[in-house]
Design goal:
379 residues, Aspartate Aminotransferase, domain 1, alpha/beta, single chain, 12 strands, 13% strand, 3-stranded antiparallel beta sheet, Aspartate Aminotransferase, domain 2, 2 domains
Length: 379
Amino acid sequence: MKVYLDNAATTPIAPEVVDTMIPFLKNEFGNPSSTHFYGRQAKALLETSRRKITSLINASPSEIIFTSGGTEADNMALHCAVRELGVKRIITSPLEHHAVLHTAEYLDSNYNTELKLVQVDEKGHVDLNQLEELLSSSKELTLVSLMHANNEIGTLLPLKKVSELCRKYNAYIHTDTVQTMGHYAFDLQELDIDFLTCAAHKLHGPKGVGFLYANRKTKVSSFIHGGAQERGLRGGTENIYGIVGLSKALALAYEDLESHQKHVQSLKSYMIEQLKLAFPTVAFHGDIEPEKSLYTVLNVCLPETTKGGMLLFTLDLKGIACSGGSACSSGSNKGSHVLEAINADVSRPNARFSFSRYNTKEEIDFTVKTLKEIYEVNL
């Protein structure tokens, strides 16, 4: 049996998305910047996809800039905030994806922006009282950049409350929704934010495509130079078939969102129950309360074992794919900066299991059974 439980790293592309993309890979090869028939056809597909996406999140087509994925979109948001909007101060958290943390550090070093890290508790919740203190303590124009849900431990940010705090102190707000777009409903007319980022491959779409939402009230300029594509805001020929796939993946996600949420949450809750029965000393990193936790992610602290350092490798050999944290950091010699920030117990084996609508209860049973067998051999 093969079990894929690493959906926070990437999701399998939905068959319907593949079917939608194939005609454009085969026949609709025009450059949308060309003025002839083939170019006009490609341009129409591009703008139809843009309108479809904005209809799903209640935004305007002019507010969507297609990118190569979430990392580029995060970089663009932070750079534009500093270069175009005059931001002198960035507030973020130690739990952010490195696409945000490393960019903020770069801007701090090279653009003389002040970088502040808001504190988090042992479950990964941002200290909203300290955030307000940071916002009120300076008159400098500020950008708050906080992810909607952590990609390693799943803790959710109360995004509306943070947005309201930012508006109270005239700060800009950027949120990385790479892990939550397509998994929660977004109404960007009701949710008052400046920047939001998305990557298609986290919601059963293709890799190499995503978007930056930039509120129409927010001035941005090109981050990648070279052409007038994306209304002059992103040089480079648009990835038409990828964008078509992104729009289809997002539409599929929202067709039956409530059913998907219930199914995946039931898998996560079931795995928590089964792990508690199998391992009485098991613990979980981050918040696991459904209303405070991303339902697709479960970060587990397992009992000590003589083969703890080989646990993920052993699971892989037995057909189970999971991870120890962010896939973007898997080549690093350092441990998880997220687990370090919440003072997690890293002396015991840690594993991140992340679920999708394609997973089943039988796969959870197989995974827990396999874990028990591994421990019986190696304890």
